[in-house]
Design a protein that fits this description.
Blueprint: H1 5-11, H2 16-40, H3 46-50, H4 64-73, H5 81-95, E1 105-106, E2 109-110, H6 113-120, H7 134-143, H8 150-162, H9 172-189, H10 200-207, H11 209-279, H12 282-321
Antiparallel strand pairs: 1-2
Protein name: HAT C-terminal dimerisation domain-containing protein
Organism: Rotaria sordida
Length: 322
C-alpha cells in the first residue's frame, strides 16, 4: 500500500506488530469499500454502458451504432418501430456529418452534453428541414433521465420553504407560480433578484398579469359552472332512473301478487272440477272448466307481463352501467 510521507514517519514510532495490524486494517477498509461499490454501483447496467455512444468522441466508434440501437429499443413507450428504423439511418448520417470541434471542446475541457446535442439538432437539410428528427426525440428522452432523486428531494424542500404556517392554503397554481419565479430568479439573476435583467417583455408581462388573472378566474368560474350543470343533469338522470326502477319493481310485485291469486283461482277450479266429476254435476263441471280456462288465460298474460317487466329492468340496469 502506498501511504503519505507524514503517515510513514508516524508509523516509525509503532512496533512491527502494530504496523502489521495497521496495514491489515487499511486493506480491510479498502476491501469493504470495494465490495460496497460493487454492490451498489450499476456496473452491469447495459443501458448505462450503451449511453457512452452519446459522447462526441464516441461518434466514430465501431460499437456506437449498436449502442444507439439498443438505447432506442429501451424506450418502447416513446420510440415506435418506425422511429427505430429512422434512428438507424440518422445515426449513419450523424457519423458522417462534419461537426465543428467548438461544439464540444473548449479550453482544457468539454462542453456539457446537452449543449453539444442542442447544436447537433440545429443542423438542417438542403430544403431547410431538420436533419435529425427521430434521433432528436430519442436523445431528448435520454437526457431527461434523472441521475438520482436529489432534484426531487430539493423540490420537496423548496415546497416546504414556500408553505409556511401563514401560507398553508396556497393552491397548486400559486405554488407553481412561486416555484417558477424562484427558478427564473435563479436562472436569469444567479439567485439575486436585483440582477435579473428588466426587459420590455418582462414589463409587459407584469402589466398584463392582472388581466390574465381575471381571464383565468373567469375561465375557472365557467368550468365550475359547467361541472355544476353536469352534476345537476346527472342527478336528474339518476332520479329518473331510480323512479323508473321503483315503478318497475312495484309493477313486478303487483304482477307476482296477481300470479299468486290466479294460481289460487286455478287450484280452486281444479278442486271444484274434481268434486263435480265425482258428483256428476255437469253444471258445476262447466263452471269449473270456465274458471280454470279463465285462470290459464290470465296466467299466460301475467307471465308475459312479468317477462316484459324483467327485460325492462335489465335494459335499465345496462344503461345505468354505461
Amino acid at each position: 500500500l502506498e501511504i503519505g510521507e507524514a503517515t510513514r514517519r508516524g508509523l516509525n514510532n509503532l512496533s512491527d506488530e502494530e504496523n502489521k495490524s495497521f496495514f491489515s486494517d487499511i486493506r480491510n477498509i479498502y476491501s469493504s469499500i470495494t465490495k460496497e461499490l460493487i454492490r451498489t454501483l450499476p456496473l452491469n447496467n447495459d443501458l448505462l454502458r450503451h449511453l457512452q455512444c452519446l459522447h462526441p468522441i464516441m461518434r466514430h466508434s465501431k460499437t456506437s451504432h449498436i449502442s444507439i440501437m439498443n438505447i432506442a429499443r429501451s424506450f418502447p413507450q416513446m420510440i415506435i418501430p418506425d422511429d427505430i428504423d429512422r434512428i438507424n439511418a440518422e445515426w449513419y448520417i450523424y457519423q458522417n456529418e462534419k461537426i465543428p470541434n467548438e461544439w464540444y471542446e473548449k479550453t482544457n475541457e468539454y462542453h456539457s452534453i446537452d449543449y453539444y446535442w442542442k447544436n447537433i439538432f440545429t443542423i438542417k437539410t438542403n430544403t431547410g428541414t431538420d436533419k435529425f428528427i427521430a434521433l432528436s426525440k430519442l436523445i431528448k428522452c435520454v437526457l431527461s433521465l434523472s441521475h438520482g432523486n436529489a432534484d426531487v428531494e430539493r423540490g420537496f424542500s423548496e415546497n416546504a420553504f414556500l408553505l409556511t404556517d401563514d401560507r398553508s392554503l396556497l393552491s397548486d397554481a400559486s405554488i407553481n407560480g412561486l416555484r417558477a419565479t424562484r427558478d427564473g430568479v435563479k436562472f436569469f439573476g444567479n439567485g439575486k433578484p436585483h440582477e435579473v435583467p428588466i426587459t420590455k417583455a418582462l414589463i409587459d408581462s407584469i402589466r398584463n398579469a392582472h388581466s390574465r388573472y381575471c381571464i383565468d378566474l373567469e375561465k375557472r368560474q365557467q368550468e365550475l359552472l359547467i361541472k355544476e350543470n353536469l352534476k345537476k343533469e346527472q342527478q336528474i338522470k339518476n332520479n329518473c332512473f331510480i323512479k323508473k326502477q321503483n315503478n318497475l319493481y312495484d309493477e313486478q310485485k303487483s304482477l307476482h301478487k296477481n300470479l299468486t291469486n290466479i294460481q289460487k283461482m286455478i287450484d280452486e277450479g281444479t278442486e271444484r272440477l274434481t268434486k263435480a266429476i265425482s258428483l256428476k254435476d255437469f253444471k258445476e263441471i262447466e263452471t269449473s272448466l270456465l274458471l280454470i280456462e279463465g285462470g290459464n288465460k290470465k296466467l299466460a298474460m301475467t307471465n308475459t307481463h312479468i317477462v316484459y317487466n324483467t327485460n325492462q329492468l335489465n335494459q335499465l340496469r345496462k344503461k345505468q352501467k354505461k
